[in-house]
TrEMBL record, chains A, B:
Pfam families: LacI (PF00356), Peripla_BP_3 (PF13377)
PANTHER family, per database record: HTH-TYPE TRANSCRIPTIONAL REGULATOR GALS (PTHR30146:SF109), LACI-RELATED TRANSCRIPTIONAL REPRESSOR (PTHR30146)
Protein name: DNA-binding LacI/PurR family transcriptional regulator
Keyword Transcription regulation: yes
Source taxon at top rank: Bacteria
Keywords in alphabetical order: DNA-binding, Transcription, Transcription regulation
SUPFAM superfamilies reported for this sequence: lambda repressor-like DNA-binding domains (SSF47413), Periplasmic binding protein-like I (SSF53822)
Translocase in keyword set: no
Residue ranges constituting the HTH lacI-type domain according to the UniProt record: 5-59
SMART domains reported in the protein's UniProt record: HTH_LACI
Coiled coil: none
Amino acid sequence: MPEPVNLADVARLAKVSPATASRALSDHPHVAEATRARVWEAARALEYVVSPDASGLARGTTGRIAVVVPHLSRWWFGAALEGLSDVVREAGRDVLLYHLGDAAARRAFFAELPARRRADAVVLLGFGVDDAERARLERIGVGIVSAGTRIGNHPSVSIDEYVAGRQAVDHLLHLGHRRIGMIVTTDPELDPGQPEGRAAAYRTALADAGVAHDPALTVSVPWSPEGGARAMGELLGLSDPPTAVYAHTDEVALGAVGTLRRAGLAVPGDVSVIGIDDHPLAALTDLSTVAQPAAEQGAVAARMALATLAGEPVEPVATLPTRLVIRGSTAPPARGVRGVS
Amino acid sequence: MPEPVNLADVARLAKVSPATASRALSDHPHVAEATRARVWEAARALEYVVSPDASGLARGTTGRIAVVVPHLSRWWFGAALEGLSDVVREAGRDVLLYHLGDAAARRAFFAELPARRRADAVVLLGFGVDDAERARLERIGVGIVSAGTRIGNHPSVSIDEYVAGRQAVDHLLHLGHRRIGMIVTTDPELDPGQPEGRAAAYRTALADAGVAHDPALTVSVPWSPEGGARAMGELLGLSDPPTAVYAHTDEVALGAVGTLRRAGLAVPGDVSVIGIDDHPLAALTDLSTVAQPAAEQGAVAARMALATLAGEPVEPVATLPTRLVIRGSTAPPARGVRGVS
């Protein structure tokens, strides 16, 4: 491994003292222009890099944006992180990644606040916090931005969860379904602030259509495709099972489709299924869904964080549009409308 | 936003000079035990955090591991990054994330080497480099570790790509298939060092079984589920289409299954399909596959990087086992063995 080039090497090549080399590289005012040029040329020739930590400390900044995520192997989080990291890189800053995948990691993070003094801003991706955690987070003393959740009054970007839910449930109602199941996904330990919009949309869409609410048609499961498979099994076990199912995410909807296939039921012939996300596999599995822009949410959060750093005004809440994508997993109920109670 | 606590606040509360407070917090030897205790107590009371950059610079370390990834929204990369980041966090260090998603980002990274002086080690996740890029990378002057690819003689962890490929193709041969298609996935811009093992396994498995190689049965597509869908379309267009298909990854295999379904063909009744990975959706879609431990590869790479830092011996190449997972997408050919030329 080659020895890293140090300031003394640069000074030697430029034929100046290390102190002069240091002043020239930090754009100190009292350095002759010819000397400054010679030192920079030597630095370039040797590929010398001014230590970013040292120069950042002098400026009082770290050059880093801290990102907190509860998951990395789920589509939304990976896509949002991609969108964020590209914007941060283009702005010449680095991403400091904090993956808090379980309760222990989460507790340790909020107790120790490792991001403190290591980043110029903190961005939470799909990471809800309670009031105590928010208060701890604010002790980091830098700007806080979130995507997918609201953190107090800090700037945030998300979709309108209620509108997305209405797009999905209204589609099923327009097709003529009246017996509609809902698979709610929960992640209580990781997302205490999980928005209620997707479930509220189901209740009001049914009410607006004059369909009585049957609590047996709502099943809550921890997030996972396996959770979706299990929830669909519960719904099929009802004496009057649904003709259509609205799942809160595509990955869970795909789990439900798996159960229907294994049960020998046709999608959408016997049961229609719709999700939310437009996961890359939704197109391939012909799943109807409500598309949300995940990478764009990460990118907007990054731009909000950079604007905060630059002292520029930041709109407190950005809402990105969602879009109903009708594919082959939804159709009118085969046996016509079945009565509910 | 609260004002961050500084050293002067700690010194004031502990009733010592800032210089003494600094010495006490950096465990300087010439500080009386009672003074040291009083300063630490004040620091704790004020939740003062010693600037990690400043203390790291004094030690000549940054406390950070740089991670380079070509993708974040594909399963393997997200899972490997989860495994890595948990190990790094437990070791009290931070992850600096470099997502290089296109040729421009890649060129800029190797030209500027932003990770230089910002990290104590560099880990590449599923990121192949050519010789010129490797030489540039080595200029960062810290340990280099990789997962999923080999980078010169630097420590690396991966599965045995050839063995994984043999597990998949031998399974199809054992079922009686002789006309077996292969969907090769390429990512030339991002992975010039992509291992050849998965394709080599196909050729030798067929040769070992006495099956003549038909180049028409190999289709190469850029990685994506859509690529898999397109490749399957090409294979179906052959005058003598395959009875089984081996795809290099599950996401691509699921694309192929989508095309078969849309063409009205049964899986595995008409065509068997197998992938590699054991993506979370493989279980739900009943896809036969060869399982590889993605999170574990990230975790092993992290432990290798930490061992390098600690000056401990590191085994140069770790190979993690893969496992054939037989599900409902593979079965014996329905119409018996069909001849090949």
